[in-house]
Design goal:
The complex is a heterotetramer of chains A (597), B (169), C (467) and D (104).
Chain A: H1 13-25, H2 29-49, E1 56-64, E2 67-73, H3 75-98, H4 105-124, H5 128-146, H6 153-184, H7 189-192, H8 199-215, H9 224-227, H10 233-242, H11 247-254, H12 256-261, H13 263-284, H14 290-310, H15 314-341, H16 354-357, H17 359-373, H18 379-391, H19 395-420, H20 434-437, H21 439-448, H22 460-477, H23 483-491, H24 493-498, H25 501-518, H26 523-526, H27 529-571, H28 576-596
Antiparallel strand pairs in A: 1-2
Helix pairs in contact in A: 1-2, 1-4, 2-3, 2-4, 3-4, 3-10, 3-15, 4-5, 5-6, 6-8, 8-11, 8-13, 10-15, 11-14, 11-15, 13-14, 13-19, 13-27, 14-15, 14-18, 14-19, 15-17, 15-18, 15-21, 17-19, 17-21, 18-19, 18-22, 19-22, 25-27
Chain B: H1 2-22, H2 26-46, H3 50-74, H4 78-82, H5 90-109, H6 128-139, H7 141-162
Helix pairs in contact in B: 1-2, 2-3
Chain D: H1 8-28, H2 32-57, H3 61-91
The chains are: A mainly alpha (597), B mainly alpha (169), C mainly alpha (467), D mainly alpha (104).
Amino acid sequence: MVNLVANFWWIPLYPLFGAAIIAFIRRGASVIAPLMVALSFIHGLIVYSSPRGGTLDHTLTQWMPGLPFRFAADDLSLLMVLIVSGIGLLIHIYSIGYMAKEPGFWRYFACLNLFVFFMLLLVLASNLAVLFAGWEGVGLASYLLIGFHHDRPTVNRNANKAFLYNRAGDAGFLLGTLILLSIAGNVEFSTINKLPASGLTLAAALLLALGATGKSAQLPLFVWLPDAMVGPTPVSALIHAATMVTAGIYLFARLAPFLAANPDAGLVIAILGAATSLIAATIAAVEHDIKRILAYSTVSQLGLMFLAAGLGATEAAMFHVTTHAFFKALLFLTAGNIIHALHGEQDIRYMGGLRDKMPWTFRLMTLAALSLAGFPGLAGFFSKDAILVAALKYPVFFAIALSVSFLTGAYSSRMLWAVFFGTYQRDAHEAHGNMLHTLWPLAIGSALAGYFGPHGELAWGVMLTSALVSLSGLYFGRSLRIPVVLKQLFARRWFINDAYEAVLVHAVTRKGARAANWFDSNLVDLIPHVPSSATTTLGLLLGWFDRFVVDGLVRLTAALFSLSSYPLRLVQSGRIQHYALAMVLTLALTLGWYLLA
Amino acid sequence: MDAALFYTFAAITLAGALATVTRRNPVHCALGLIFSLLGVAGLFLLQAAELLFAVQILLYVGGVMVLFLFVIMLIHLEQAARLRQYSRQWPVALAALFAVFLEIYVLAQSGLPGLPPSPQPRLNAGGNTERIADSLFYVYALPFEAASLLLLIAIVGAVWLARKKEQPQ
Amino acid sequence: MQFNNLFSILPAAVLALFGCVLLLLRFDSSRPYLIFLAFAELLAAIGLWRQTDFLGFTGFRGAILIDPFGIAFNAICLVAGLICAVGAYRYMEREDEDHPEFYGLILLAQSGMYLMNSGTELITVFIGLEITAVSFYSLTGFLRSNPRSSEAALKYLLLGAFSSGLLLYGFSILYGLSGSTHYLNIASMLATRNSRDPLILMAILPIVLGLLFKIAAAPLHMWAPDAYEGAPTPVTAYLATASKAAGFALLLRLILGPLHDLRPAWEGLITFAAIASLTVGNLAAITQSSTKRLLAYSSIGHVGYILLGLVAGNKTGIEAMLLYLLVYTLMTTGAFLLLSALDREGVTDFRGLLYRHPGVALLMILLLLSLAGLPPTAGFVAKYMIFLSLVQARQYWVAVIAALYVAVSLYYYFRIIREMLHNPDDSPATLTISTGWRAAVGLTAILSLGLGLNPEPVLAWARSALR
Amino acid sequence: MSLYPITTAHYVILSGALLLIGAAGLLMRRNIIVMLMAIELILNAVNINLVAFSKHWQQVTGQVFAIFVITVAVAEAAVGLGILIALFRHRGTVIADEIDLLKW
């Protein structure tokens, strides 16, 4: 009998074999892929539930000087293992139905298995280098999966974009790792967490944080995530909601003592998280694409986790990671059901009235959305509450977290109303088979996971405030739907797609309409509209900022790289004498440089 | 006397070089090169490098130049001679070379610390050729052998490249 | 003494001898040549291995030094030569030029590299360099009926001869300064000079420029994309790795030897060349449509990384250079050889390769991942060591720039990977694969992964080479 | 520096001049044969240097070096002319800037 606990490092290997086997035989993917992830999950569960006595570790090989290829398992990493393999398993099973008619079925599952392998490698790493191997690997798998439908026009561009953003972060990660290595001689987490603070450790912490912002889609690198939604929906659920994007928070949790020793870095992380959270939530409040709403919502929730992690409350952050994994995966998968039923439609304005057609999807999504919004008693309520308690020390952060909480409620209910209520527009049918059954475990998690979290002393005041804010968000969220204006937007839908300026124009128009209605409306009716319309405008502005400034900067950078490629190539004229001239010029310039220097 | 000879040979060398670089007809260029090489040979003689003088004349002027002329005859160059002779980049090229020249001049002005002092004259004690032979076969035996390999490679390469590809029967 | 002399050049002598004999042989198929060549390489390898017992010995009055450094570089060249030749024969058959001259010149070029790697005397290394260069001129133009091949050879020759002229000019001044051509004597004569000395500059700049040309570092890289593209692909693989490695050996021997104390005179130029190579190599590769040219530019980028080890200048840096060169040799020979099996060279000609030839495509993906430097491949280990040396030398800004270019480089490597994942188009490129090719490319790809997973042996090797 | 007596420096300067003329020929002339000749000029410049230093140091090493340089010059010229003939057969031209199949 092999000792499964001592050989916990086998956990990532199952999906790796799965990927290899599927790539090799190209059939049976629907059996092999889930099976392998299930093995990881079972193995993880066995290790998790067995008495371990401290941290397990296993050194595979001595990789490089100071860098053993070592795995380690403690409660934190095993929790992540269970999340990754558990949710991964459900999403594998779900995908069998969702991807059934796709060409390249096996390729999808091979990539998905590969992703699970890298993610498990990431969470079981015992040092930054092994973690980095997984970190890069999940980026690669994510890239391949986002670009799964490579024959669609925007897909390649968005896949590249996601990739480039991640790489920008990774460069920071790598440099941070190297600095730590040069200080400490190795990058074991246990060593780093004992390092005394200095200017260099602060720099390293900031660089690592930059890496985390890339992977976890935070300012300044957050815009890739909404665009990554062009990938298949189960992929969005697994990678871009439940697992990969939480890698940054996992990293902070791993390095909690190190961050505590460098509080300035923690503060930067918290500020970035808070800002991202607020911005993303306001954008989510005006989005129309259901997957993009969920994507911005993810960015916003990740921002809250960053906030908590930055303030040192890594337990709260990890708690939210866990609950978020459940309800966000559930949201994405139910959204997937809807999209599947509507043959690819993703715009919530073209949905509506689906409550009767898809009753189970409706119930499950409502549950998930309520959990997301922090409905008292559901999982999201408790974890968000923990974050609010952590932010209590800083009034600004607390206020931001509360606003985000309000907005979360608002866009959740807006989405629910738009999708399930109102007039029924399309023919749709309830999902069946795997695509429904796999949702149950997630639903149970979304509802109950909150009771298993780390409960300190209950802060009743915070809880009450939080509940009130969430509920009011949920209530007012409905009024975010402004029928008159929305009808106008329907009429010119193509206008939004082409240029966002047009939307700005609409915002102005909407304000005009609002001004005209001002006197007609009574004051009581108006009050809830003030924050909502202000948020709407702000969201539009920020959306505009996102699309034109941040996105523009990225495109500009990419374009600059491509553009700079051309002159460099043009110099390469093919003429021997130009080349010889370049040599002589180099000689002249270097001589001159040495003369002047 | 030495100075006069030096300037004469230097003038021949440079004039020949200039002719090589500027003449339109490649045969004239080759003749200019021959003059230049002969001038260099004269400079060798002036510095008591008798063997090198002979090598320069026999090998270079005799061998290489024949090779050049042979190729010039092989490739009909009448059209080439009628074309524009200078590439369009010549002003830039001249400017760059002039810059190099200026820089070297400035370098020299900034105080050429010069070479270490010359030791006692004993250059050709025992005869130039003998001393070179000593050096070549004793100290530099390895590069000497390697040079023969280099020539072999050059022959193989040149023959291979210049020969027409056999058409498969 | 006599024994020492012959022994000190035994591998080169074996290679040259077998090379000459190969020129005389005529067989109907190319396999006998290959067996012959492999036998010669094996003997040379045994010779190299035997030399490890005689470290510190010199031969030919100080012209050759047997030391771990030279043995390490010779090993790299040997591996590159063997892999390229073994992977080449089907390609040469396809081009109908499978003649013994090809294999003979490969061996002869390698004997020249031996002199570059192990030589410690100006004339010896120069002749070695010329043997290598002239062999490569001929190899580059080996496809006589292909105008691109001839053009590549001509460009390489004219510019190479010019760079040799510059190098020689520097050598002549160096000789003038020291009155000797032996590194040890030169070092002692230069010891009293400072780095601002005009004559020193006039010697060092042309020498460093001439050698930067040989290793195809920007801004003296311009011959490389053209020559790499026009040359027969296996020759490109050989040229981009072995010739470069030997150029590095020569550069390092000079810079770490006689010129070491004159660091201010070459440091700026080397740093500039490193950054310029990174820039040119990585940026120009982005928009290439020919894979061969793309890989050519990427190899310029890799030279930039390798030079960064010299910029760092510490022990880790030099070790990292050696390690990087070995890894680079494996990856690049593998990638070029793989390309040589395709009958077309466009990036889009890789389309659907994963579906038609999954094995080949997986090898290519491995090689590209390694070239891109993703963990856990050997390419990552190499880049990691370079970055580590930079951070240790506190060259943070250089490290930042280099790290950013890693991100850029991924962009174009992944273009090829994505093409392979596409479904095949109507007219897929066809593959010509031989057993030797399988062995050669498979070995490089497996090593690219294996050395990444367990780099300890090569790290130890690099450390021991610089004792 | 005076014109008289002739020192090593004079030879070095002459060598520099020849080097620059050779480089000029290489950079400016379109005819590849002339470019090859220009390379010969550059190598000769090196030889002038070597022989002058040989005289300066009163030892023949420089002259030996020069013999090797001549050998190299011969080898390069031979291969260069071989390639030129191959190229001329395909393209019918020996003009340098018309040979640009490979670029960008």
